Amino acid sequence: MFHYDFIPRGVCSRAIHIGLSDDGKTIEHVSFEGGCNGNLKAIGKLTAGMPVRDVVELLAGNTCGIRKTSCADQMTIGLEEAQAALEKSGR
């Protein structure tokens, strides 16, 4: 499993911890520091085992209140960064 820590911007959560499958195509786990605890735990449970591509397509652009982003939207950015970091590492 490939681990990646992402620092979100413009949201309540302070960090998003991402675990991807060795090929980077599947989410193994996602957890958040800070933010809406129950909702973010649910996002982690709902996305575990799902293809990164599907989650990004579903949640990218999601907003929170008057913000132009959300923890879910920031997670999609983190997922794409994690995939790029995995590819760059040559694993």
Q: Could you characterize what this model shows?
A:
The chain is α+β, with helices and mostly antiparallel strands and 91 residues long. It has one domain. Helices cover 42% and strands 20% of the residues. It is built from three helices and three strands. A three-stranded antiparallel beta sheet has the order 1-2-3. A hairpin with a 6-residue loop joins strand 2 and strand 3. The protein is globular, with a radius of gyration of 12 Å. The N and C termini lie close together (10 Å). The model has no long low-confidence stretch (mean pLDDT 96).
Order of helices and strands: EEEHHH
Uncertain stretches: none
Sketch the major β-sheet.
Answer: 3 strands, antiparallel
What is the radius of gyration? 12 Å
Mean pLDDT: 96
Structural class: alpha+beta
**Quaternary structure:** single chain
Count of β-strands: 3
Question: How much of the sequence is in beta strands?
Answer: 15-25%
- Principal-axis shape equals globular
Estimate the helix proportion, in percent: 40-55%
Number of domains: 1
